[in-house]
Write a structure and sequence with these properties.
3-stranded mixed beta sheet, about 375 residues, 14 helices, about 55% helix, mainly alpha, globular, 3-stranded antiparallel beta sheet
């Protein structure tokens, strides 16, 4: 999960209860915005390092593709650059009870509720972690390389991701720009799954446009591995739910919970070995597993296949796809989820879905 919303606007509209948090977020965000330098100026500057110049030129290419092929917003986002003093931008906090993978939600003015809380200040973050853990919550903290302000600001390219492999750099920009294209209040799973789908299909199309067939093969292999890992995390979440709902003592629940995590680690080792993956999610599984960590992945990716099917169903016409997704997003939550589930199953009967805006092919 990589985005944060327009924090300074939240500061202006928020009440006093969270003023300290919003003030810290506003200062952190505006400090980043003040450091922006136009990419065109950097490319024209003879002092700009050759490798950075190469990467910034690649960003410009990716940005053009995002507009012309993926119909993503043509605005001033990712036309500037910021050199950070650390390898990440913020840290996102997730929390869940001891016997549930349902993530705690924090509600904000204007943009509604989200299952995370972003921090620039590590001291403030750790103080809140202590507070949550003292209340019995399980906590997961993830380092975030980028975020989207949903178009409220001109988001910059950051040193935290500029040197990522080409396909990952392209995918990240496609992901963040999708958040600017469509954002549904109070439905993080919808927003993140949608952005991940555009990221995946968009990256494939971008590599095809550059005739990078070897990179496409590597991406395909990675996506197969990643898909199996996501299914593993989702199944682990389902198994944990069964443990927590069982009529057994808390002590036995804790034993069974530990066994589920052990099984998940072993299953991941098998998946990684099958695909010949070194790295990947290995560190993620090797570290502490808890409800917040499982929830942070499972909840944010579960609907992605449905959106991929919608893109394919619209024959890769992204403009038509976004119009349709906006109609789906306008449904009430129950209808929306039923429609997405029908697309997930590739069910021909989509009674809860809006009418398609054009003839479409069967998703494959």
């Amino acid at each position: 999960m990589r985005y944060l919303i327009s924090i300074p606007l939240l500061l202006l509209l928020s009440g006093c209860a969270d003023f300290g948090y919003y003030w810290h977020s506003a200062r952190g965000h505006l400090a980043v915005m003040k450091q922006r330098v136009d990419i065109e100026d950097l490319l024209a500057d003879k002092e700009t390092a050759a490798e950075l110049r190469k990467r910034l030129a690649l960003v410009q290419e990716i940005r053009r593709f995002s507009v012309t092929r993926l119909s993503l917003p043509e605005n001033d986002s990712y036309l500037s650059y910021v050199e950070l003093d650390r390898p990440y931008l913020i840290q996102n906090l997730f929390a869940a009870p001891e016997f549930s993978t349902r993530l705690q939600r924090w509600c904000y003015p204007v943009i509604g509720c989200a299952s995370y809380r972003g921090y620039y200040d590590e001291e403030r973050l750790l103080a809140y972690v202590d507070e949550l853990e003292a209340s019995g919550q399980e906590v997961h903290v993830g380092k975030v390389s980028a975020y989207s302000t949903l178009g409220w600001f001109d988001d910059p390219v950051l040193s935290s991701f500029i040197n990522w492999p080409d396909h990952r750099l392209a995918g990240l920009l496609f992901h963040e720009l999708t958040h600017q294209q469509i954002y549904i209040d109070d439905d993080t799973t919808f927003n993140e799954s949608l952005a991940s789908a555009v990221q995946m299909v968009g990256t494939e199309l971008w590599l095809q446009s550059r005739n990078q067939h070897q990179a496409l093969e590597k991406l395909s292999s990675w996506l197969q591995y990643r898909g199996e890992v996501i299914k593993l995390i989702e199944s682990t979440r389902a198994r944990l739910h069964e443990v927590y709902q069982a009529d057994i003592s808390d002590a036995v629940k804790r034993e069974n919970k530990a066994a589920v995590f052990t099984d998940a680690r072993q299953a991941h080792q098998s998946i990684a070995a099958k695909h010949g993956v070194r790295g990947g999610f290995s560190d993620w599984f090797a570290g502490e597993l808890n409800n917040a960590k499982i929830g942070s992945i499972a909840a944010y990716n579960s609907q992605m296949p449905a959106f991929v099917n919608m893109i394919r169903g619209h024959q890769l016409d992204f403009a038509a796809f976004y119009e349709y997704v906006a109609d789906v997003g306008a449904l009430d939550k129950n209808q929306r989820d039923s429609c997405i589930e029908a697309w997930q199953r590739q069910d021909d009967n989509k009674q809860t879905c809006p009418a398609m805006r054009q003839p479409f092919a069967t998703a494959s």
